[in-house]
Inverse folding.
């Protein structure tokens, strides 16, 4: 009983990557183009919603130092995680040294998941950088459309990687991942509804898309660590020695 | 859910790493299974049963 496919049945990685990037680019371009055609409409909406654009950016409200530092830290963590996982994929010795193989498995399937997981984290960091740049640089409406399209394309590529990871990740990691994501999305949905209610009453704070994504990332990390602590506490201590 | 995984592994003088390799899962999964913090999926339970040539109910016990 194995869900491994023969090597010949799989597309080669570079071709598949190019195909994913191409599909993501097409989706991004289509969304960006359709968005661009409605710029006039969006301008009207923006004028009527306290000068905010489609990313929720208010030119009158500067990015706080706290948000900036939090964003930098999160981007650093995403990029670091991505790089570590990709190096671990290339170097089994490094993988064993940092405990990656103990967490994700060092079988063929476990190792195949590593570069995808690394790419997933790099994409997440890149998305934060993109949205952060859009907020800090105060881009114009036309550029906003491109940023939105590019952001959607990156999320699309992340989804493709996530689907591939589903069949390759270690069973325990997969369960923790799903539990953490479901819980985070549920809390974020409740939070969004509460925020919407408060805003309709005129007391809720305005949150940009960038800030929303940042909050999601921090919430996900906290919940992921909590669930890992419950399910596999050894992951948070020393996976090399536990229970041997 | 209680299980006899640790005992069965010890009887064969296998490390967690050996068992993880045989089942194509991570050592963390084996550790979580042995400590009862995680219940395996049905395919993994069958895989474990086949590896030890036992029935699933001989390894796993549905504790109330």
């Amino acid at each position: 009983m194995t869900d491994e496919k023969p090597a010949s049945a799989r597309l080669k990685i570079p071709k598949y990557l190019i195909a994913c990037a191409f599909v993501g680019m097409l989706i991004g371009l289509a969304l960006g183009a359709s968005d661009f055609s409605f710029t006039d409409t969006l301008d009207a909406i923006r004028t009527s919603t306290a000068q905010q654009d489609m990313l929720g950016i208010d030119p009158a409200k500067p990015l706080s130092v706290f948000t900036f530092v939090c964003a930098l830290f999160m981007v650093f963590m995403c990029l670091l995680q991505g790089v570590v996982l990709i190096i671990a994929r290339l170097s089994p010795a490094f993988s064993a040294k940092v405990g990656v193989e103990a967490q994700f498995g060092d079988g063929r399937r476990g190792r195949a998941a590593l570069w995808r997981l690394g790419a997933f984290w790099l994409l997440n960091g890149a998305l934060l950088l993109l949205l952060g740049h859009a907020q800090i640089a105060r881009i114009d409406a036309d550029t906003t459309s491109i940023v939105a399209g590019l952001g959607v394309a990156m999320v699309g590529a992340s989804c493709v990687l996530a689907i591939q990871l589903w069949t390759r990740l270690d069973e325990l990691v997969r369960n923790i991942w799903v539990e953490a994501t479901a819980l985070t999305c549920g809390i974020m949905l409740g939070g969004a509804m509460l925020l919407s209610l408060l805003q309709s009453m005129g007391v809720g704070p305005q949150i940009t898309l960038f800030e929303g994504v940042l909050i999601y990332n921090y919430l996900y990390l906290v919940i992921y660590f909590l669930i890992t602590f419950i399910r596999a506490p050894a992951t948070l201590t020393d996976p090399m020695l536990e229970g041997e | 859910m209680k299980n006899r995984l640790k005992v069965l592994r010890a009887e064969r003088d296998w490390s967690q790493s050996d068992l993880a390799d045989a089942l194509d899962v991570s050592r963390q999964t084996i550790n979580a299974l042995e400590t009862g913090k995680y219940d395996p999926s049905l395919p993994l339970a069958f895989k474990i049963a086949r590896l030890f040539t036992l029935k699933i109910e001989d390894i796993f016990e549905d504790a109330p």
